[in-house]
Amino acid sequence: MQGSNEEKKVSLVLGSGGARGITQIGVIQYLVERGYVIDEIVGCSIGALVGAAYASNRVVELGDWMKTLTKAQVFRLLDFSNPRFGLLKGQRIIDKLHTVFEDVNIEDLPFKYTAVATDLDREEEVLFTAGSIYTAIRASIAIPGIFTGVAYDDRFLVDGGVLNPLPLNHVTKKGNIVIAVNLDGLPTKATGFVAKLNPVALLQESYFAMRRRLSTLTLAYYKPDFTITIPHDSAGIWDFHRAMELIEMGYNLADEILKAKKDSSIKPSQEIPSIDR
């Protein structure tokens, strides 16, 4: 799957995982600085959002905005809904994102972009490869029970990570270097901590363990060229106020995994401003 040294074209797969997905901004910065040409992005949930910002040439602005967020500002972005349908409407977040990058049709982007959502009725994945990029983002980030689902084309759509937290199976450019950002790495906590959890936390940890196993099986089957793994306990789902730290983490982990491929003689092939680290 290796590309030429001149181009080093990449299919980048960005997984789901809440605020841990901010690390993907740092990964993108690292790839661009090292001359990798991101020729395709496949993302779900936060990965669909970060990938959309990059495809719109606004990922730096997304990172800069996130770096300004405090806990109080994150809370103010939460527009509570009728709990029968989900705790949050999600519209306030989408409205704010519109000030960072505009809505575009996916087919007009400069490279292949795919966002993955889940049709909960049919229990199947739904791919967004055309149409409004914000429709794709909103469907892909609709965490069940947290954000209200999206009615779309006679379907009820929720977060793509429900069925496929690391959608490697939807890479189409097979000649590219395939790089996956797995947000479901093993936690750094010592074993034995789960015995001390209350029932709700224990249920949550069980769900996380299922996600990790699903991601592990996906990685074993599809075998990307490189996997950048983010520890599961590196950030909570709403820890967007830690953006600076998380962008730095993603950059450093990308460097750790890809450092054997460094070549300072190759200049970046895509224009993108540097992200302050």
TrEMBL record:
A motif (GXSXG) lies at residues 43-47. GO terms for molecular function: hydrolase activity. Keywords: Hydrolase, Lipid degradation, Lipid metabolism. Gene3D superfamilies: Cytosolic phospholipase A2 catalytic domain (3.40.1090.10). The keyword Lipid metabolism applies. Pfam families: Patatin. GO terms for biological process: lipid catabolic process. The active site is at residues 45, 159. A motif (DGA/G) lies at residues 159-161. Residues 12-172 form the PNPLA domain. The keyword Lipid metabolism applies. This is Patatin. It comes from Sphingobacterium deserti.
